[in-house]
Amino acid sequence: MMEVQPIKSKEVIAKMKELMSIDGKAKELLLFTIGINSALRVSDILRLRWKDLKGDVIKIKEKKTGKWKEIPITPAVMSVLEEEIPDWREKPDNEYIFTSESNRNKGQVWSRQYVWSFLRDYARRAGWTEAVGTHTMRKTWGYHAYQAGYPIELIQKALNHSSPAITLRYIGITREQIFDAYMALSL
User: Fold this and answer.
1) What are the residue ranges spanned by the domains of the chain?
2) Active-site residue numbers?
3) pLDDT, tens digit (0-9, with 9 covering 90-100), for 108-125
4) Distance (Å, rounded) from C-alpha 176 to C-alpha 157?
5) 156 close to 167: Cβ distance less than 8 angstroms
6) Which CATH class is domain 10-184?
7) 148: which of 84, 102, 104, 172 is 20 to 30 A away, CA to CA?
């Protein structure tokens, strides 16, 4: 299995969002925006129902860990809802958000493979050449939280990792970046 990377470029993220919007892929854009703003696993995002977005927080029991997690609905997520899915408040509360609209699979929850496919496609179209997968969204959140100066322990807790070392490796902090820090702090 190939190791996927976070999307480290904010310009690539913005371009991916722009392309999804232009292509009329509102739900794909919503999933991507939730993914890079929540650090949730794709298996948990795919289980979201419209009612989960109608408050101030997303409260979900993580499938992998069995732990409850609360994530605030960020301005970026709210913006996608308001601009791309204007009737989202009228959607049936118990309806899954990320379902197929094709005749063959109408109403079925998207597969991880579908999510991987559209993420890979839009990342490539936006100019990203590194390996992309469904975990890319979680890693992207962690990477940008770290770059913004949030303590690694906070990121570790949000990602449910057992140690800071695992989190650093997970979010793609490279040997070169560590060496850059040494060189920049040459006292």
Assistant:
1) 10-184
2) 41, 64, 135, 138, 161, 170
3) 999 999 999 999 999 999
4) 25
5) yes
6) mainly alpha
7) 84
